[in-house]
Amino acid sequence: MKAAYINRYGNINDVQLGEQSTPVLTENDVLIQVHAASINPLDLRVLEGEFKAILPVQFPFILGNDFAGTVVQVGANVNNFKAGDEVYAKTDLNGAFAEYTVVQQSSLALKPKNISMELAASLPLVSLTAWQALVEIAKVKAGQKVLIHAGSGGVGSVAIQLAKYLGATVATTTSGKNIHWVSALGADIIIDYKTTDFEQVLKDYDVVLDTQGGKILEKSLNIVKRGGRIISISGPPDRAFAEAIKANWLLKGIIPLLSWSIRNKAKKRGITYSFLFMQPNGQQLSEISKLVESGKINPVVDKTYEFSEIKDAFQYVNTGRAKGKVVLKISE
Questions:
Q1: Residue boundaries of the structural domains of the chain
Q2: Which string of b and e fits 57-91 if b means at least 16 CB within 10 Å?
């Protein structure tokens, strides 16, 4: 099968497009013909080897974290899906940038009926991230105040819509050129980060979804009220992350130290800091499908590329200017 893979950690020029073996099906797996997949900033971080110390891979390694496609074959223990079903998922460990991929049935969901494969492929990673942050961890309720950083990004564009569905007042940061666009997504308060310091205009927020890390994460502490939460997908990992990746005893001791400073500062303010390591979850994706079919969440795709243009697509994601998601058309 045709696939996009790497033989070593490196940069975009190290991405190869060529033949790889079709993945082997086991009893709990589903084999899917991939019609479309989306590129996430996470894929660049994997490519560059950012996680090699804690999540090493075997080369050649097929990239790609989420996709939409059609079920080709199911394992002996699979009873929720059948050949011909149109599905989408966050992969169990990459592998979406290929003509075929395999995932566990627990990671898979029927794709929303009212959208294309390309639009469906844009959703799994970002919508699961938003869901696990706002619904599972923060348990956002109607009337609460939520700040979502980088509202025009892939995660932000879905998180704004989900937070509004949950009944929150939503603030977001973005550049001036995207103000009207994120307003259309449902944001109530929009801060142009190039001209305004969010720390100076926001206060007493219940939840912050941090997608930036660094100084933005530190400053977010100052706008959260006591009892509130900061959930980060870019900040330092915590003990829950170490447990999620089944780290060895040494890493279980080291990883929590990375977030000790931010956790300590949060604790002094009566705030809870959590690092979100998003997990594949077919049941949650099924709930997201309902929200898409009812018009509560609309996928946001900036550009679509042919599979042969994957390096151009990576370059565009790498600019950080994408509004929403960038999608690859893998097969018809």
A1: 2-122+299-329, 126-275
A2: beeebbbbbbbbbbbbebbeebeebeeebbbbbbb
Rounded CA separation 234/228 (Å): 19
pLDDT the model gives residue 20: 97
Question: What stretch of H or E contains 316?
Answer: helix 310-319
For domain 2-122+299-329, the CATH superfamily is: Medium-chain alcohol dehydrogenases, catalytic domain (3.90.180.10)
Q: Would strands 224-232 and 66-74 be described as parallel, antiparallel, or unpaired?
A: unpaired
Helix (H, G, I), strand (E, B) or coil at 260: helix
Domain 126-275 in CATH 3.40.140.10? The answer is no
**Residues whose CB falls within 8 Å of the CB of residue 8, separated by 6 or more in sequence, listed in order:** 14, 59
User: Rounded CA gap, 257 and 114, in Å?
Assistant: 45
Band of residue 266 on the pLDDT scale cut at 50, 70, 90: very high
β-strand pairing of 100-104 with 108-110: unpaired
